[in-house]
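no rush on this but wanted to send it before i forget. what follows is a protein written twice so to speak, once as letters and once as structure tokens for the fold. mainly i need to know what kind of three dimensional shape the backbone takes. thanks a lot i owe you, the record is right below.
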Amino acid sequence: MSNILIVIHVTDNEVKKSVFSAAAFAKQAAAFAGGSYSLLAIGSDLSGATAKLATAGAAKVYTAQAPDLGNALAERLAPIIEQVLLAGSFKMVVSPASSVAKDVMPRLAARIGAGMASEVVGLSFDAGRFTYLRPMYAGNVNGAVQIDTPIEVVTIRPTEFEALAPSGTSPVETVAVPAPEPVAAKIEYLGFEKAVSTRPDLAEAAIVVSGGRGMKAKENFVILEELADLLGAAVGASRAAVDSGFIHNDFQVGQTGKIVAPNLYIACGISGALQHVAGMKSSRVVVAINKDEEAPIFQIADYGLVADLFKAVPELTAAVRALKG
């Protein structure tokens, strides 16, 4: 039997879709090996999130909250996870591959001497062992990973697992939060600059409109923003656009940015470098607008338009506006 612990860091009482994607992964793993999955939520205030977390189908929801836990310091969070993990006899601990998890989970693995598989996109089970698939070489190949330690640490790409529909109500248990360890006391938290947008979250949006180097200037992104607002979409960008200073790196899509898998991805002035494609190739429908007919983006696009984006995008925006009345 292999019980699984899902770890989630909650800020501003926001429960993201990735929680239910992690639950889908855990449910699949538990069905393979026998057992159940539970959820550990950590944050400074979980009062507004607990009820929704309890609908993720977990056997139990553990909550750990304290004023300083909203800061997401790995040195503070890892000991809390270790405490719950060992007390519950869990054989696997899993988290969505967020920026927080990429910091916390390797530290946890080192603390408990566990093997780790990161950015997992699939799994199988045979002869009592899990095999995890994770992308390598900018997503051109999937590597098969097996872990030999008693506890397995895993982060998953939420875009690769269909989120579970909320249902039921799990029992909730409050966890005693241990005092900070000496190493945590040496770290000073200065602050967090949060990108504020009225548009959908880039990583979870159903539609994404992205711009690349072909946008030519920061001011030109208003063209994409107008289209995005009409479609109820998020705005994204390639690394080239971010490196050129056209847009903040919070909006970067790609291997070194955010991984997205919307129903519709509109790429404007994006050449289609491997680094960018690795972050959006799981999109259901890809539309590419580029004046270079040899641009690699057309190789993965479902629909391609060879045209000047500064003419084509406004025309597309006007057509959408007319259809919406």
Remarks:
- The longest helix spans residues 17-33.
- The domain at 4-185 is CATH 3.40.50.620 (Rossmann fold).
- The longest strand covers residues 129-136.
- The CA atoms of residues 14 and 299 lie 37 Å apart.
